[in-house]
Amino acid sequence: MTVPVLYLLDASSYIHRAFHAIRGLSTSDGVPTGAVYGFTQMLLKVIKDAAPQYLAVVYDAKGPTFRHDMYPAYKANRPPLDPGLKVQLPLVRQMVTALELPAVEMEGYEADDLMASLAAQAREQGFQVVLVSGDKDLFQLADEGVTIWDTMKELKLGPREVAEKLGVAPEQVVDYMALTGDSSDNVPGVPGVGPKTAAKLIAEHGSLDKVLDAAADMKKSKLRENLLEHRGQALLSRRLVRLAQDAPVRFEPTVFKMRKPDPAVLTPVLARLEFSKLMNEFAAPAAAEEATYGRISDPAKLEAFLQAAKKRGRLSVDTETTSLDVMKAELVGVSLCHEAGKAVYVPVGHQLKKGQSQADRRAALQVLAPYLADAGLPKIGQNLKYDLSVLKRAGLVVNGVAFDTMVASYLINPGRASHGLTAIAAEFLGRSMISYEEATGGKNLSFALADLDKATDYAAEDADVALQAAEKMEPMLQEAGLERLFQELEMPLVPLLSKLEMTGVALDVDQLNELSKELGARLDEIEIRCYRLAGHQFNLNSPQQLGKVLFEELGLSQIKKTKKKTAYSTDMSVLTLLAEEHPLPAGVLEYRSLAKLKGTYVDTLPTLVNPETGRVHTSFNQTVTATGRLSSSDPNLQNIPIRSDLGERIRACFIPEPGRLMVSADYSQVELRVLAHLSGDPLLVRDMTSGLDVHTQTASRLFDTPPEKVSKEQRARAKTVNFGVLYGMSAFRLAREQKIELAEAQAIIERYLGRYQGIAAFQQKNLSQARELGYVTTLLGRRRFLPAINYRDRQAREAAERMALNTPIQGTAADIIKLAMLKVDEMLAKEFPEALMILQVHDELVFETPEGQVEKFAKRVRKVMEGVLELKVPLKVDVGWGRNWSEAH
DNA sequence: CGTCGGTCGTAC
DNA sequence: GACGTACGACCGACGT
Asked: Which domains does chain A have, with CATH numbers?
């Protein structure tokens, strides 16, 4: 039979090391978590590597110990506990508890003493003991049954290794340390005696007592005096470093037996700490019992359920489909819930097995339709935009879209890594959920093929969790002052975005294909030219290979390294500089710009045209950006080129239906106007109101030149400064951008903030708010947490400062255009029912409208957009139109 | 053969 | 050692 092994883990040793090793980790709302994370990782590593059967985490006593009675100055040199660490200590205990690990602590004793005492008892009961710690105090315990494992240094120390390391046997370690002392614990030892001398003395005489007895006869006068004079101090030191093996703890194998953590307990702790990676590892196993939720296949029963929902005044809705792509997804089932824990699933498109039944699709949808369309029945759900689109395609209109948990989670904390329902369930309800894989029995299997019982549990749970999460979130939105933003802006946007996505935009595919051929030919030429210049073929798309050619073979000047310093940078700025030395970089630049546009847009866009609608349907994501902007993906239509000629030709491929025109309306200088409003700076407000050119005015003030005498170059410089202010620019960057000395750049920024004192004050206000409250806000109260703003890590802190300066501006601009989308949509419904909103590109809205009404349409759109909010400066909108998106600009 | 981090480049 | 916010193509290392 194998000998059982007990692992005793020194918590403090690892907490401190983790705290210092991992700086700058915190939850997205600002609770530091580096020490907990590091500690947990280390703990899991021990569990994984050693697979211990018996283990305990051992803590130091919170208050003084018996050593303080012996020696009041014990550990007196320790600086006070860092507050960032102090707040994590209870979190570590929570984590250990949640992992269901046995823990030991005792008033008056340090962890080392408890470990020594437990080890002694475990040895008597026939256990081997491993002391998991980095603390050398424990070396004294090493013997044939006790080893010390320092996981950080990957060291396992038995008596032999201790003897090798210190030069004395484990039982001599206390005597040795009595001579050397321990500066971290303020144990004095004997002055002038370090590790070398101590080891030599102990080896020669055998013990401390014998060393002290022999002191008087020693030859080295300094050593002799020190030993004689500090004899008492040495004896005291030995008492301090000797671990108590008689602490009143009891080793009971059953108590120290490892258990498996319960996901239901662990999940909420991991969620609160935002340890999402660990959360995946500990995901709850399948709850593969019989269905706990109900299933409805009888239309009459569905009717009754919906009547109850109507009476209760709310309905949580979730759809199951065959695809994540809404424009391809077919409805498979609908889950509904109006009372926590009592959701139902209505399958309408499953492939059934023998003996199973589902609702007749048409009958079920017919019953559902009036309830979904009932604006007086508030709808709740997760990512309702998706369900709205799916249901719309199934012929069902949804009104009364009241509470989207994904959107609510985003407003409560836009910085969270995920606003998925699983994350929300963990964070707000402390529960885990059935995974899609479990429900369908595979990763990418269609939901229509899923086992009906599993599908029911999975689907119904979504509706149930959304309902319950919404109840939790509602008061949190109130508390944070986000209620109006949620109710009046973000929620009304949900159906509008659904509509926008479903509308899509038409492409001139023939033109794109033509462009592709032309670009292909030009790329071939450039490629050949580049190979000739390099002397051989290589992959022009590989920065790594290019770096080798440029810097190793051709010997061009190395200008900068990449972020990770692993390679030479070959980005645009570098190649532009190198173009003066050699013709190859210019060729690569040309290749890159063409290849980029060809690969990303010209060749890709046509493949994304939906065969049913003949149009491209992007996703407008409402819960992605940290500032409140929308983002666009699959494809991203918010970064279609505009600056180059080729970009214009790509934009020209975005076209309206025949007989209609493309209309583009964009806010002019919206961020500067927002800055003027938020800061109230008198000069900027005056400039933005007067209609004069704002960059010329800035140049005039920066360079002490009358506006009419401002040169083109001065205006351009002022423009970059104005932009820089919006982004929280550093002097360093400005100097590089404008190719001027750092000192000059500093002077320009100082002069700017001196002239625009309202802006300087606004910046200070944002910084202090972020430091004190931990977040910044936009005009409509949108929040962004910036935990890093109080970090010691300078780079992280300064990045957070720039975010604190930029976010209120960018976020307010986002608030404004979202408001504009809603107001324009209302206006369109009343006045231009044939017009369609097509795209939003941050400060621009794109429409298509019948040719005949375009001028009147443009006028009305401008009026509505300019009037969405009354600011200290007017909002200005430019409207253009044409036969394609390019012409509309 | 798929995943994922790094690099680069487009937009506002 | 980077002025803010995104998305995505491509490469190449890494793990299965």
From this structure: 5-241 (3.40.50.1010), 294-504 (3.30.420.10), 506-616 (1.20.1060.10), 671-812 (1.10.150.20)
